[in-house]
Please model this.
Amino acid sequence: MTKTVTDVVCPFCGTLCDDLEVVVSDDGKTIVDIYNACVIGAEKFMHAQAKDRVTRPRMQQPDGSYKEVSYDEAVEYTAQMLAKAKKPLMYGWSSTSCEAQSVGHEIAEKVGAIVDNTATVCHGTTLIAVQDVGIPSCTLGEIKNRADRIIFWGCNPAHAHPRHQSRYSIFPRGFFTNKGHKNRKVIVVDPRNTATAKMADYHFQIEQGRDFELLSAFRVAIRGEWLPDTVAGIPKERIYEAADVLKSGRFGIIFFGMGVTQTLSKNHNIDNAIMLTKDLNDYTKFSIMAMRGHYNVTGSGQVLGWQFGFPFCVDLSRGFARYNPGETSSNDLLVRGEVDAVFVLGSDPGAHFPISSVKKISQLPSVCVDPHITPTSEISKLHVPVAFVGVEVGGNCYRMDNVPIDARKVVDPPEGVLTDEEFLTRVNTRVDELMEAK
Amino acid sequence: MSEYIIKNGFVFDPVQGIKGDKADVAVKDGKIVKNVSSGAKVIDASGKTVMAGAVEIHAHIAGPKVNVGRNYRPEDKLFTYKPKSKQSRMAGGFSVPTTFKTGYEYARMGYTTAMEAAMPPLYARHVHEEIRDTPIIDEGAYPVFGNNWFVMEYLKNGEIENAAAYIAWLLNSTKGYAVKVVNPGGTEAWAWGLNCLTINDPVPYFDITPAEIMTGLMQANEYLGLPHSMHVHQNSLGNPGNYTVTLDSLKLAEKIKPNNKFGRETVLHSTHLQFHSYGGDNWGNFESKSKEVMDYVNKQKNITIDTGCVTLDETTTMTADGPFEHHLTELNHLKWANVDVELETAAGVVPYVYSPDIKVCEIQWAIGLEIALLTKDHMRTFITTDHPNAGPFTRYPRIIKWLMSAKARKEMIDSFKHSAKMIDATHLAGMDKELSLYELAQMTRAGPAKSLGLSNIYGGLAPGMDADIAVYNFNPEKEHKPDEIEKAFSASAYVMKAGIPVVIDGEIVSNGNKRTLWVDTKVNENPQVMRDIRDKFLKYYSVTMNNYDVASHFLTNPRVIEVDAVR
Amino acid sequence: MLSGEVREMETVTLTLKNQPVLFLEADNISPDVFAGKKAADIAALHAYEGREQITLGKYFEVAGNAGATAADTKIVVKGDLTRVKYIGMKMSAGEVVVENSTDMYTGAWMQGGKLLVKGSTTAFTGIGMKGGELVIEGDAGNYLGAAYRGDWRGMQGGMIRVKGSAGSDTGYFMNSGTIIVEGNTDVHVGTHMVGGTIIIKGNVPSKVGGQMVEGTIYVFGAIDVMMPGFKYIKDEELEVDGYTGPFALFHGDLGERHPKRKGQIVYGKLYQKI
Amino acid sequence: MTKIALNLITGRTIQQGVAMEGGKEKDAYTKACGIIELDLSDLKKLGAWRNTNVRVTSQYGSVVVKAIEATQGPHPGLAWIPMGPWANSVTNPNTYSTGMPTFKGVPIEVEIAMDEKILSSVELIQKKCRGEIS
Model:
């Protein structure tokens, strides 16, 4: 006999699909089958079942090998490291629940840490742009129900957010869009002829690194002003044409991704895209949305926001919160040698930071809390395996449009494996004792 | 058994009609009692003013748009952050404080209960997560209904009972407290970039008017007998000449009778009236219409209002009135955030600088104070800043100063750049009314508590009520310079929340025992409404119906108000 | 004080004794904070290394006493200061001379007085500046004279001169005042500028004047890629910081909103030396 | 030995996503991310067959990956390595004081490295951190 858990929330990407059905054995220990998930989401649930999974903390030995230790020893090492450090970096937080983030922030406040999340290498520049010019946006259901103009700028949902187009953007039939795809015109701006571009009515194969110029050109065209013959490799006629397509819609949306946040101009690309959206609201209704990556990177920004007032790069070292990406951002801190310990939870900087930053982590006291073996876990002094959030433990998460959805537990974690929240709570208690002693 | 006795203070309690007599207040196990044993801890309040903990009826302090305001304004926290202490977390933000600062600052001013004025249902979990992280004060949140597709469809067909059943379902799902209406119809119109600027503008596609939405929601509210009345932010907020729209909206209440078991005698709460009492037809001839509006409010007994006083600060405006925020950013060109929420509502956020050098801002400042000073029944007018829209709630002590001291008002007016023009466009300069402490207690304690249907537990010092008590360094028998008034109400000498001391000498001493208020309403089975709900989730929502409900683990110490509307 | 009157300044000399393990936050090194203090009091002022509160005396040899007010206090800072932040932060008067290179936030939120750095600085030099004179003899980093995050009120006044080169985002959200870079800069000069003057004597790769509303930018060297929203208007003969010659005037950013004055639309001005 | 100069961008692919969730220590992850996608014209310039090991070098480091034909081309002059340790061996750490490294738009040189081994993610990172390879 098996049982089916419905309305399961997928803990992979910011699309945060909440319609998965997971068939589990009746002892609730093994996942038998998964429905409605994309291939990546399905793989995530399946990997939780991997036989070779690490289930106990491991401490790096002088020869670089790893030796199994108890959770007690892991808690002690972590608490000691954080309590000793003058300025520890506590990084990650995007693949865990808001409840766990909250406990992490308590610890960070006590030890004067810097709390940064994966936005720092993903949509951090978007957050900077929002701080400079705001952001007119909407929930994904609004797009499904109303949108007839859709731009994907520097993003490739066909690969990064596989169910996005069918659930929310290109294909769904909504209240005012009962013809689905036929109601919509799709524009893709990307230097490659991506899988998403192949589905578009218009593809602008932009000269890489010239998004800021092309966005400006769109804004000039919207105002009907003069333009040079080509901008970013695109002839001005096509730019004026696109401007008319955008103005003639009833409800438009710009989705953008790392193609613009990580490209030269960075926050300025997003800034100008937001201003383009604002300009379009003088003619019709237009919104813009970041294609957030990790399933709860948005939640980390929210919890940091209500607790400290900043969405990432939060420096608590002086007993109050400060913020300034470029100084208090993980890669700048590491490369400049501003921190003396690194705690990573719910992210893999070893794989996703430039190597110069990774080398710094490997030279510092470091703890990696992660269900997986990762490049980070294999260069950290301590690796602490934990239960998969959204598979083996529930918790609140925020979708790319900031809609909170409470992730469900579908199976038990392996015998004796702690959750993020349990491990952090024990570290928090131990840190209290150590700071008290000081 | 924790016992306290607060001795020899000048007590002001409208619930018992006590007007400054020297009296003792006894507390046992979190409640006010007649008397306590000799072992009770004595708090000396001699020479001080004693009131019940204040009740905030309308502020934007928790939820998605508030957090947008925090996250997108790092400059709002620069150089003003309060470090952590042994008892308190670090606390920052001037116009949009963090959740910790929100709890601490309310408590320091003697506030022990606050209501979040606009909860987008789809984001209810977020609102409750912030409420959970807001220390000390009891909180509830008002879900917004005025642009909700279910509501508009039922009311268009005159289906009050179905609207009521849906309201009950939504309050239960979102753990909400009251029926909030923001720019009825106008916010749905905004989804197409449009608006409804009078109560008779039809809503695009839904073919219903704001007047029909407000009337229907008042009827549904009284059908259910909810503790609070319908709470409305009217159409055409902030526009010159909008006072006629305001009067049209208020008049809708004439047809409605209150029906509830909570001692509430009103059917409509009209919020931040300052923003809705404007004359003129452009910013040039912009003027106060507070007299016209307050003349009506004073004689129409089934209405309550709050002021929405402008404090002349740099602040952050935020409202579910999406089209208004777009209008504002077109005026001041400052950063604009907007979120349209599927099937339900929208919200916008824009920073705003209320400058004492700008005529319109000076006039707005005067109108807010006029509304408070023209009030005849202080149990029906409440002091707010529509935090943070007209200014941060941390400015309440300053507003109290202006209301209690004609001298303080004169000093302000004289300091204005356009004082002559401001005087011509307003009534304030000619007003010598000075608010009494008793009237203050009505407007900040007993009044809002009664309007919320909570007069049996909050807003008073009668035995059996919650031991929420504020003691101020303010001797009513002495003369006070204006700034002494502001100082006294900024940092309470002593604040007790449900019998626990939380503030001593203006400093936080405990994170208290905050509770979350919500209204659990029982109605008859309604298969049609449940079918409609399932259908809309299947077709139009982006989350499943089973992932919509806010689970109980999001609420700390829930304080459930039961309503039985089964017929 | 009367014009021509020479004012006697008291001088405090700080010499770095040893390098901090991490970085030193020395926002107290400012004439406003030192004013009225003796050497010993100054050595007792707080500085921060991570979460540890320490005294300036732990890292600096302090010699000399400050004047009675900021205006008659001069501070000379010596030693390798590349791990010291916030020197001259919020100073409103007096004088600070940094003998070598220093780190972030040098002269940040400066309101008045003179700050001279004989070496180079890194990012956020003079951000949120309101007044005074800030001179960097070496190079400056990114966000020179820029706004703090989220603030639409960038540089409000004063004068910044960099003898070497600057990084990206020079004069971000600039409102008023003058920034002169005698060398080159990286991308984004005067982005979101609404007023003031920026003079770049060297080259700028691209993204010059993007989203500019008002204000004036002069570029003496090459611009690899011009923003599409800048339209050539005419040539003009101008005197710019000691150089006189022909410049090509461009109006922009045409993609941005522009105010009207006396019925005329006001544009941002970009002058490029011919 | 021919070297060709290209502009590198990095990012997600669905194979990278699946392999990452399957385990970064596994071969599948190396197969999904230890690659560089080149336009057919650039493969020709390089004189390389499809699926040849190549060495990618930038100002910031060097790494050996397998050259394959662009799956989302054509994009002559543009090279693509899926996000991961291989890409980040050569990406530009300059954040322009925004916190964001420059993961896209990195000038690289590509040369055939037939006999050089493609390391697994863990080997690659460990060797680089220990200074065993540059």
About this structure: The longest strand of chain B covers residues 3-13. Chain B touches chain A through 59 residues (CB under 8 Å). Chain B has one domain: 50-75+89-508.
